[in-house]
């Protein structure tokens, strides 16, 4: 039985049903011929910084879109997002005294795992769900929701444009130290795209050249599936989202498959349990991992375990829940003698009203007025500032 299973190719969940496999093949050949989007040395630098964060000598602040839009890949919008990331990081450092490793959910965050493959419109029409701009478009029409391989080329081009803006900005900022540069991370969901962009690194290995930091989502982190195999095959710093259903056995397997004792910072576990689960579940996980927990950069995602639906039917999140999860995260790690390595937030650079300040606001049946996210609700700059300030206090 086991032998038979080993011969079968590993499964990959959350992959689109592309409109044309012939076109997909052409697109992938074209991607394979392109120069890397990011340098292997920058990825290695980030691994070192994440290692510092794991030891408590720095703190990773990762912020940005749930689902990045192609239309945002213009210098003005990219700079507005980057300025917001660095504002949060500067405020964090001022309040905590810890250097911040600055990372966007940017320049490639174009693919989304979804809880259902279809969406039913109010008139009963059933459409394929929006899976991110690299796959289809959010407008509720059959044409927009068709998974077009040509979108992978657009994803690559828009990621490239965005990264050029980040790089120009970093180079133009006299006085910024290396630790104040802007790193780019995204969920490595579309395996054909990610695989097509794998390139040789400087050490005789291979790295994913689509972004500095690549993470595997909570829905695709099965140790015997292809996403984890992909993460194991590249030298980038990688992350895995850990939700409340993750078993300690699976997490231990992930640490052994993806961690590297010679490269602290190679593996981040991005915990997203929800405010009510974080204390008991993270404590149990740390207990089960024992000494192995120290080899990991522990990052808190206080967003994805705290999604609620408001009276108007919109997905939202309460700032108090976000803060409560961060508090539970920090105290569970401290109780085990470990240091929190970072925070991953979904943020907007403009004053959106997608997350709410108090749980009472969830009852309202009036839709939140400025709701612009293509996927999950993001913190406004003001809300993100509060969350970061509270995190700085806890450290
Ligand atoms: C996300 O980060 O947008 C996401 C889908 O997270 P998770 O895999 O933790 O649900
Ligand atoms: Mn999200």
From TrEMBL:
SUPFAM superfamilies recorded: Aldolase
Transferase among keywords: yes
Pathway membership: Metabolic intermediate biosynthesis; chorismate biosynthesis; chorismate from D-erythrose 4-phosphate and phosphoenolpyruvate: step 1/7
Broadest EC class assigned to this enzyme: transferase
Record Gene3D superfamilies: Aldolase class I
Q: What is the superkingdom listed in this entry's lineage?
A: Bacteria
Family, as annotated = Belongs to the class-II DAHP synthase family.
What name does this protein carry? Phospho-2-dehydro-3-deoxyheptonate aldolase
Q: Which organism is it from?
A: Streptomyces purpurascens
């Amino acid at each position: 039985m086991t032998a038979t299973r080993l011969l079968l190719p590993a499964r990959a969940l959350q992959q689109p049903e592309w409109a044309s496999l012939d076109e997909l093949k052409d697109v992938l050949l074209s991607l394979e011929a392109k120069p890397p989007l990011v340098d292997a040395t920058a990825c290695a630098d980030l691994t070192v910084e994440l290692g510092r964060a794991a030891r408590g000598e720095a703190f990773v602040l990762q912020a940005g879109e749930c689902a990045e839009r192609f239309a945002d890949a213009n210098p003005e919008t990219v700079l507005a997002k980057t300025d917001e990331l660095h504002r949060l990081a500067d405020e964090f450092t001022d309040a905590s005294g810890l250097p911040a490793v600055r990372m966007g959910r940017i320049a490639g965050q174009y693919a989304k795992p979804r809880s259902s493959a279809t969406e039913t419109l109010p008139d009963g029409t059933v459409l394929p769900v929006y899976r991110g701009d690299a796959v289809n478009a959010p407008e509720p029409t059959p044409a927009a929701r068709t998974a077009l391989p040509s979108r992978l080329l657009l994803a690559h081009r828009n990621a490239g444009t965005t990264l050029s803006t980040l790089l120009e900005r970093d180079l133009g900022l006299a006085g910024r130290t290396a630790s104040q540069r802007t790193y780019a991370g995204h969920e490595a969901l579309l395996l054909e795209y990610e695989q097509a962009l794998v390139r040789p690194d400087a050490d005789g290995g291979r790295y994913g050249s689509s972004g500095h930091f690549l993470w595997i989502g909570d829905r695709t982190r099965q140790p015997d599936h292809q996403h984890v195999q992909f993460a194991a095959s590249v030298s980038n710093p990688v992350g895995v989202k850990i939700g409340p259903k993750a078993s300690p056995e699976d997490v231990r397997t992930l640490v052994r498959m993806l961690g590297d004792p010679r490269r602290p910072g190679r593996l981040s576990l991005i915990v997203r349990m929800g405010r009510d689960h974080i204390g008991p579940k993270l404590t149990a996980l740390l207990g089960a991992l024992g000494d192995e927990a120290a080899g990991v950069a522990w990052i808190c995602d206080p967003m994805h375990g705290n999604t609620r639906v408001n009276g108007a039917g919109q997905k939202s999140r309460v700032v108090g829940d976000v803060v409560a999860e961060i508090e539970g995260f920090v105290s569970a790690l401290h109780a085990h003698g470990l240091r929190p390595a970072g925070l991953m937030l979904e943020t907007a650079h403009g004053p959106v009203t997608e997350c709410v300040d108090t749980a009472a606001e969830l009852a309202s049946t009036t839709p939140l007025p400025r709701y612009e996210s293509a996927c999950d609700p993001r913190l406004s700059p003001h809300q993100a500032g509060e969350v970061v300030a509270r995190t700085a206090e806890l450290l």
